[in-house]
Amino acid sequence: MKGTEEKIKLEHEAARIFMRLYQQRFGIKMRHIWHNEPARPDVSCYYENNKLDLEIAHLYGSEVEAMHILGRAISAETHRELMALLRTPPEHRLLTALNRIISSKAQKHYQSDNVWLVIRNANPLWSRQDMLSHCSKLHMPKSHPFNEIWLVGDMAGESGILPLYPPILRQQESAQC
After folding, report:
1. Residue-by-residue pLDDT tens, the chain, 177 positions
2. Which residue range(s) make up the domain with 81?
3. CA distance linking residue 78 with residue 80, whole number of Å
4. Contact between 120 and 153 (Cβ < 8 Å)
5. Is the overall model pTM greater than 0.85, yes or no?
6. How many domains does the chain contain in total?
7. CA diameter of the chain
8. This protein's superkingdom (predicted)?
9. Residue 73: how many CB atoms within 10 A of its CB?
């Protein structure tokens, strides 16, 4: 039960951070969130007066990195795996992890007409600049259920949000930087 409660708490926190940053950036009111049961996206809210569903994902890198970042106990074998992984260039791990999340989430089907994917970077080794420099290398599936895909640059949201999809949002972001 504790794992489920922790997951819900992380999802709500990510949704709140994203909603606050989106509202600040675009002046569009986002409010009131609630958690959904499986078959629906993780969190629902109101985008002005329209219902919007948010599927939340956290970008750690790998399962081993996630355990390390979350402070979970790891075995000696897992520690060796983590050390080997950390010798891999961070930018390669970033792109691989981001593509893995998008690909995995793209295979899901939701009972919703308006779903955005919000990915929150939980890996302190990756910065907003790292994210920007790799956006053009993402492998966006031809088919997925998301109207928009956004990235929160860090756990606290201090580095802002980045649009990953649709391409027009990504191009506008690149032109601003």
Report:
1. 457 888 889 999 999 999 999 999 999 999 888 888 777 899 999 998 899 999 999 988 766 666 666 666 667 766 666 666 566 666 677 888 899 899 999 999 888 889 999 999 988 878 888 888 877 788 889 899 999 999 999 999 999 999 999 876 666 665 443
2. 2-176
3. 5
4. no
5. no
6. 1
7. 52
8. Bacteria
9. 6
